[in-house]
Amino acid sequence: MAVPVALAEPGKDATPTPVANATVTPTPDVTITPTPTSAATPTPTPTPAPRKVLSSAKWENDHVSMLVTNSGGPIMVEAYIDDPSNAVTTTVKQGATVRVNTNSITAEQGQIIVFGFKAYENGTQIDKFEGTLVAGQTQVSPTPPPETASLSGTITDASTGAPVEGAEVVLKSQSYGKQYEAMTDSSGTFITGSIYPDTYDIIITKAGYKQEIRHTMNRIEGMQQMDAISIQKVPSGVTPTVVPTPTPTPTPTSPLDAWIALLYTPTACMATITGSIGLIVSLTVIYEWYMRQKERRAREAQLHQEQHQRMQQQLKEQQEREAQRERLQDQQERQQDQHERLQDLASDESAKND
Predict the structure, then answer these.
(1) Contacts of 78 (CB under 8 A, 6+ apart)
(2) pLDDT class of 238 with cuts at 50, 70, 90
(3) In 3-state terms, what secondary structure has residue 294?
(4) pTM for the whole thing?
(5) Which of 88, 145, 181, 351 has its CA 20 to 30 A from that of 332?
(6) What distance in Å separates the CA atoms of residue 79 and residue 115, rounded to the nearest whole number?
(7) CA-to-CA distance for 120 and 4, rounded, in angstroms?
(8) Distance (Å, whole) CA 90 – CA 112
């Protein structure tokens, strides 16, 4: 039997309503079946995108060090030298800039050494730097990979949104320094040829427009298309600054007159003397630089020649060891044959005596 409930209007107290005696029927027990709780589906971890973290390798007496700049999450850097199996791993924290070292090896001056660094984030490779160096060489340049990537895009007018035809697009590789050039067509589209997989500085130039410079945040790999780039026109009606034309100085008729005129013009005299001194200093610096480069090339050539001679000597010694081994083997075979003949003679003699 239903039990009436007193309802209160807003702002008033509820007045209880009297209820007559009633027989209450007991409610049978109800078995409650628990609702199974569904298992939470784990959110998949996103795959890290390639990014530039390895920048500068350097030979340091007995190992190679790599400058690692990590602007993202924690990464693991694997470094090897001379052999990929000779690897060591280092963890680089988020926002850290450190140098990661390979294992140490014993190397002779001028020896060619192979090395490599690989960066991983959440188990996914995001950057790689592999190269060779000559022991004793301080700076190391990476070995360029095959040119397997390409990039396309569109250049538009910032004011009208119309495509810009004839704009020059220059891509400069940040790791290897090589430049690639392309031109936009009538639809404002450009496409490069084959380029290195790398990050790039992009420079857009067009007459009548301001130069635009962009930088790719991620490594360009495979065939990729970038977002449209808008360039701004140079404001029209800008009056160029007029530079007053200096009054020409009469040209002396002879070298003597020229020197006399120079002496009577102190400013020009000091400028000439200063320029002459600067020229002499510059020529001296260039000459010293040339001589240092010449000595360095001579040392490198001597190191290569010594290395070649050592390799030839090792090859010659190996050939001599092979020849000696063959001679010993022939001698052993001859001794074996002689021993067998002596045994046959002894057997024949024994048979005759019997």
Answers:
(1) 87, 88, 89, 117, 118, 119, 120
(2) low
(3) helix
(4) 0.35
(5) 351
(6) 8
(7) 71
(8) 25
